[in-house]
């Protein structure tokens, strides 16, 4: 239950940040969304019914599933590279990318 609440809060924060117009907030929203996806992937591996990754050899049914862990590790690397690309695009953007202009400034 805690994992679901945590993932829900991260998705809520991501959607809230991505609704803003500033590029940095959108990037932070994507980061939060990536973290929420990682938590959902780890929850798919059965966090409540599994033991440590290296369990006892006599009871193999309690050993943690390594496949969701591998997916999360891959997702972390991909999210990091996407974050770097988005940050570079935000820094090298043009000066006319100002999205915080008011309606009065647009009319002038």
UniProtKB/TrEMBL annotation:
<feature type="transmembrane region" description="Helical">
    <location>
        <begin position="70"/>
        <end position="91"/>
    </location>
</feature>
<keyword id="KW-1003">Cell membrane</keyword>
<dbReference type="InterPro" id="IPR050601">
    <property type="entry name" value="CPA3_antiporter_subunitC"/>
</dbReference>
<feature type="transmembrane region" description="Helical">
    <location>
        <begin position="23"/>
        <end position="44"/>
    </location>
</feature>
<keyword id="KW-1133">Transmembrane helix</keyword>
<dbReference type="InterPro" id="IPR039428">
    <property type="entry name" value="NUOK/Mnh_C1-like"/>
</dbReference>
<comment type="similarity">
    <text>Belongs to the CPA3 antiporters (TC 2.A.63) subunit C family.</text>
</comment>
<protein>
    <submittedName>
        <fullName>Cation:proton antiporter subunit C</fullName>
    </submittedName>
</protein>
<keyword id="KW-0472">Membrane</keyword>
<dbReference type="Pfam" id="PF00420">
    <property type="entry name" value="Oxidored_q2"/>
</dbReference>
<keyword id="KW-0812">Transmembrane</keyword>
């Amino acid at each position: 239950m805690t994992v679901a609440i945590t993932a829900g809060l991260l998705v809520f924060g991501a959607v809230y940040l991505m609704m803003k117009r500033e590029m940095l907030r959108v990037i932070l929203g994507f980061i939060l969304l990536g973290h929420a996806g990682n938590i959902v992937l780890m929850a798919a591996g059965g966090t409540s019914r599994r033991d440590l990754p290296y369990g006892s050899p006599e009871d193999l049914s309690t050993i943690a599933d390594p496949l969701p862990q591998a997916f999360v590790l891959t997702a972390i690397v991909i999210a990091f590279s996407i974050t770097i690309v988005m940050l570079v695009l935000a820094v090298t953007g043009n000066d006319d990318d100002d999205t915080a202009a008011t309606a009065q400034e647009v009319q002038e």
